[in-house]
Amino acid sequence: MPEADATRGRPRSSPADYFARLPYWLLAALLLGVLLLWTLLADADYNLIFNAVVKGVGVTLYVCLISFGLALLAGLVFGLARVSRSRLIYELASFYVEIIRGVPMLVILFYIAFVGAPGLVDLFNWAGGAMQGLGLGAIGRPLAEFSIRQLSFTSRAILALVIGYSAFIAEIFRAGIESVERGQLEAALSLGMSRAQAMRHVILPQAVRRVLPPLGNDFIAMLKDSALVSVLGVQDITQLGRLYATSTFHFFETYNVVAFLYLVMTIGLSLVVRYWENRNPASVH
Length: 285
Prior knowledge:
This protein is an all-alpha fold and 285 residues long.
């Protein structure tokens, strides 16, 4: 029997137990990363490729952070609508969630960039003209003169990611809300709270704690899917890598560097999510 730990009252882990729990896949990934990092530093070609591609890391993280933040807000709204007692609100939210989840992310990206964005600009122009007719020229004129050229492809890519991922996040929030025991809502209502107050002060705080790990996984998925924005010419990691590879024909070396940068970010985020799950076991039940 392992010797008891007097300070915590738990059995003290032996070295054999520690090595049995050691994630060997992570050690293999770290070894591969160290080898590639050494190659980046020692090989002149890899060094040039890294310096050319690493500039896209900032754009990738910018697109992901903005998109995920907005998708969280939209997903929370649609998640609440999916548990609404109003049949109309429920059906509208369900229509949005099911349609968006059934369309590939690349198709959403193209649709928003080349169909949705021009339609949104036309809506701005119409609203601006209407405001000018009502004597609100200071507000209406900029909207009426807004052109599609002022809406960058980066903004269109962010809008597409927000729309695409808000549907998945809505389902995460819906599942989290429904996982909270109904008795807690009934107890809050019996204490005199309104349904909105009970949702805000009792249900949502518990639901948010439970859905943090899957939300972290969705952020990792968005980080990988952000590579799709390269088809719009956004200067992210993938786009810079593609441009460098096609101009130098160093496809093998370039995409090794691109994969390395994505792996560093995704594995790092995966470890953070796993650490959270281990520290907060109640959040995964």
